[in-house]
């Protein structure tokens, strides 16, 4: 597929772009910083500028596309990851402005250019646990896509607003628009770097609901969404199958969630449910931390 990918230079985006390239997709990366990856063309652009988004949506994805002499091809899909990536990087209102206006501009341009597959990054933070003031426990476990989303912070608020925006665009257009509530992204080098500390002190992972998503498996999820048509508007949790700590499900419940209703769960089953992604798009996480951390 011919894919416009916003935010492909970021932590999550660069691994997803690399995965898509390996799967044979053509990717144009739209970001404020170029991605140095063979096979990827870059456009430096600002998602909060509607004109720039409309321009890149009708852009060549490389010099080779000039050769046929038949004009600019249309993108088959848009993957939108560009955003202020977390709280406490900019002012709160700037975080909210960039993320909401940027998402509106990207989806608006895609729909008006007839791009019928749009995938956008939402977040684990929508559930209100990650950036809560103090400890906020889930209302039940495991957290699935039906769990209430009532965050307190500007970043997570922007992601909830973006889901509403996307649903509205899908309602009018009828296109496939899928939102990914991405859990804490782990790059390959971070297993050896960070996980020994998580094993020693599981409480370090409480705000991430003890879950994670390998950056390469996130790329697989994007690819599966690109290949799955006809779902309309859907929201998916994106996580790996296990916890990011050595403690078992029962041990974590005993230490952290004694008063939280819990459904039957496996010995090391993630609290951040990914069953919907597996069922509807065929997501199959291939990486888990025990493959990379000795002992």
UniProtKB/TrEMBL annotation:
Gene3D superfamilies: NAD(P)-binding Rossmann-like Domain. Residues 3-200 form the NAD-dependent epimerase/dehydratase domain. This is Dehydratase. SUPFAM superfamilies: NAD(P)-binding Rossmann-fold domains (SSF51735). InterPro entries: Epimerase_deHydtase, NAD(P)-bd_dom_sf. It holds the Pfam family Epimerase.
């Amino acid at each position: 597929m011919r894919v416009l990918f916003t935010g492909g230079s970021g932590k999550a985006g660069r691994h997803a772009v690399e995965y898509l390239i390996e799967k044979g997709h053509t990717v144009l990366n739209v970001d404020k910083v170029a991605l140095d990856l063979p096979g990827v063309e870059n456009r430096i652009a600002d998602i909060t500028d509607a004109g720039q988004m409309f321009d890149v949506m009708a852009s060549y994805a490389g010099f080779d596309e000039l050769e046929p002499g038949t004009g600019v091809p249309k993108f088959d899909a848009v993957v939108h990851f560009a955003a202020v990536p977390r709280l406490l990087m900019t002012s709160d209102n700037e975080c909210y402005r960039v993320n909401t206006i940027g998402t509106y501009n990207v989806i608006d341009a895609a729909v008006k250019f007839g791009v019928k597959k749009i995938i956008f990054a939402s977040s684990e933070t929508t559930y209100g646990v990650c950036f809560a003031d103090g400890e906020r426990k889930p209302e039940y476990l495991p957290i699935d896509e039906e769990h209430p989303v009532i965050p307190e912070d500007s970043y997570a608020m922007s992601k909830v607003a973006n889901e509403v925006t996307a649903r509205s665009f899908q309602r009018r257009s009828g296109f496939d628009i899928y939102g990914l509530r991405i859990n804490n992204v782990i790059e390959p080098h971070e297993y050896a770097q960070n996980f020994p500390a998580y094993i020693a002190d599981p409480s370090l992972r409480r705000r991430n609901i003890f879950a994670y998503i390998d950056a390469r498996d996130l790329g697989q999820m994007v690819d599966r969404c690109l290949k799955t048509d006809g779902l309309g508007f859907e929201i998916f949790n994106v996580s790996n199958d296990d916890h990011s700590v050595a403690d078992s499900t029962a041990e974590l419940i005993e230490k952290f969630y004694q008063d939280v209703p819990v459904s039957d769960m496996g010995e090391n089953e993630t609290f951040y449910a990914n069953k919907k992604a597996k069922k509807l798009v065929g997501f199959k996480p291939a990486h888990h931390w025990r493959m990379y951390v000795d002992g």
